[in-house]
Amino acid sequence: MKFTKGIRQKAPWELKDSDVTPEEVFNDRRRIIKAMGLGALGASIPGSVQAGIFDLFGDKKTQSQFITSPLTYTSNLNFTGNGATTPFDKITTHNNFYEFGTSKQDPSNNAQGFSVDPWTLVIEGEVERPLTLDLDDLNQLIALEERTYRLRCVEAWSMVVPWVGFPLASLLKKAGVKSHATHVAFETLFDPEQMPGQKSRLMGGGIHYPYVEGLTINEAMNDLSFLAVGLYGKTLPPQNGAPIRLVVPWKYGFKSIKSIVRIRVMDKQPPTSWNQLASHEYGFYANVNPNVDHPRWSQATERRIGEGGLFSAKRINTQMFNGYGEQVANLYQGLDLKSNF
Amino acid sequence: MRLTSKHLFWLKVIIHLVALWPIGSLVISVMAGDAGGDPVQYIIHYTGIGALNTLVILLMISPLARRLKQGVLIQTRRLIGLYVFAYASLHILAFISLDLLFEWSLLFQEILKRPYILVGAVAYLILIALSITSFKVIRKKMGRRWQQLHNWVYLVAMLVPIHFYWSVKSEVIEPSIYILIVVGLLSLRLSVGKKISQTISRLRLKLSSQ
C-alpha cells in the first residue's frame, strides 16, 4: 500500500470494499460447489469398475490414501485470486517433488503413504529463542489465513493456488532474529525409506539430497513470504509438501521448498539445491523475470493451468516478479537482476 | 523358420498394431484423466519417447536381419521409418498446439534461441525429407542419390538423443541410456560394415589369385 498525504491508496492488486463478497453469499457458493462436487461423484462409475478399466492399460490411478483434515482459518481478502483458481485435482496431480520421482504424476502416485506424524520443524541459528515445533504447533502456533497466490514454474507453466498458512515473518519473530542475520536457509526432510527419489538416482533426478533453499533476511521478512500448512482449506497433501512448505510467490516455484524440517537463520548466503546442480541456469534469487531467459526456456510467457480440459489452457505474458513487484521490487534496488538472476 | 514375402503382410499388420497401440492408450489415459493435472507435458514427452523408441527399433532391423538371416525384415524398414515420422509429427504438433498454443512467433524465437529445440528441428526436417522420398516412384527416380539421402537417418539417430538429453532439467540418466544404445547400434554398423568390406576384399584377393 502507498500513503499519499495521509490518504491510504490501495495498490492495484487490492480489492475495493464493494468487491468483497458478503460472507453468507461466499459460504452459499461454497456449499453449492460442494454439492455439485458430490453430485458429480455420485454420477460417476463406481471406483472398483474404474480401477478395472485402468488396470488394463497398466496406469496407476491416483489413490488419495493420505488423510488431510480441515483447518480453521480466515481469508486474507488482499489475495483472493479473483476466482481464477486452479482446480484442486490439477494442483495435486501436477507436481515437481523429485523426492517422489521426476515425472509430474510421480509425487501423487508415490507419496500417498508418506507419514507426517510425528514431525519436527527446528528453527535455529542466529535467533534469540530457537524453536522446536511438532505437528500441532505448525497448525496452531500462529493464526492461519488463506491466501490465493499465483505460482510460476521455471518450466513456464503457472497455477493459482489457495494456500492456508501464516507469514514466515511471524514465525521468525517468535524465534527472534538476531540483528546481524543476513539469510535464512531451509531444508527438506531426508528420509530415503519414505522418499524413493532420495534412494535412487534414477528416480531422484540426480539432485543432491536433502533439498536446500534460501532467502535473504529481507525477502524472508517480507509479508508475501508464506509458510503453507494447507491447500483448499485442508492440511497439505504430501505431493504438495506436507506438513509445511514455503511459498514465495514472486520467485520461480523451485524456491518454494516442501516438507521443511529445518529453518536456519544465518549470517551468510546458504547453498541452494538447483544452484548447486547448475549455477549458470538457476541463480540464488530465482525471481520471476520475463526479461531474463533461462538458457533453455524462454520466460517471456507462461501457460496458465486453469479450469477445463486439455484445450482450455491459456498462454499469458509473464509479469515482472510474477505481478508482485509493488511489494518486492524495493528488495532489489541497486541489484543487477541480469547477473543476479 | 525363414520368413518369406508371404509372411510380410502379417508382419506389417503386427507392426501397425504394435505402433498404434501406444497412441490409443495415450488417448484413453488422457481422456480418463490419468495423464496428470497438466497432460500437456505428459503428451509431449510420451510422443517424443515414442519417436525415439521407434527409431531405435528401426536401427535394429538391419543388424537383426543379417544376424537371423531374415532378409524379409529389411522390407519393414520403410513402414517403421514412417512411424518414426508419425510419432515425431505428433510430438511437434503437441508442442506447437498444446504448449505454445499456436504462437508461431514464439516457435521461431525458440528454435533460434534454444540449441535443444534447434537440434530437434533439424532432426525433424531430415525426417520430412526421408518420408517424402520414401515412395517407390521417387526412390527409382533418385537412383543412387536415394541411398545417400537416406543415410542421413544416422544423423537423426545421433541428434534425437542429444535433443532429449539437452531438454531435461536434471534427470539425465534416461537420455544417457538412449545415447549409449544409439552409439552401440551405430558402432555395430561400423564393425559390420568393416567385416563385410574385409570379406569382400578377401574374396577379391582369392578370385584374383586363382
TrEMBL record, chain A:
It comes from the Bacteria. This is Protein-methionine-sulfoxide reductase catalytic subunit MsrP. Part of the MsrPQ system that repairs oxidized periplasmic proteins containing methionine sulfoxide residues (Met-O), using respiratory chain electrons. Thus protects these proteins from oxidative-stress damage caused by reactive species of oxygen and chlorine generated by the host defense mechanisms. MsrPQ is essential for the maintenance of envelope integrity under bleach stress, rescuing a wide series of structurally unrelated periplasmic proteins from methionine oxidation. Its cofactor is Mo-molybdopterin. Keywords: Metal-binding, Molybdenum, Oxidoreductase, Signal. Residues 116-274 form the Oxidoreductase molybdopterin-binding domain. Mo-molybdopterin binds at residues 95, 98-99, 153, 188, 240, 245, 256-258. Its EC number is 1.8.5.-. It comes from Shewanella psychrophila.
UniProtKB/TrEMBL annotation, chain B:
GO terms for cellular component: plasma membrane. The keyword Hydrolase does not apply. Its cofactor is heme b; FMN. The chain crosses the membrane at residues 9-31, 43-61, 82-104, 116-137, 149-166, 172-192. Its main location: membrane. One of its GO terms (molecular function) is oxidoreductase activity, acting on diphenols and related substances as donors. Part of the MsrPQ system that repairs oxidized periplasmic proteins containing methionine sulfoxide residues (Met-O), using respiratory chain electrons. Thus protects these proteins from oxidative-stress damage caused by reactive species of oxygen and chlorine generated by the host defense mechanisms. MsrPQ is essential for the maintenance of envelope integrity under bleach stress, rescuing a wide series of structurally unrelated periplasmic proteins from methionine oxidation. Heterodimer of a catalytic subunit (MsrP) and a heme-binding subunit (MsrQ). PANTHER family: PROTEIN-METHIONINE-SULFOXIDE REDUCTASE HEME-BINDING SUBUNIT MSRQ. Belongs to the MsrQ family. This is Protein-methionine-sulfoxide reductase heme-binding subunit MsrQ. The lineage of its organism: Bacteria, Pseudomonadati, Pseudomonadota, Gammaproteobacteria, Alteromonadales.
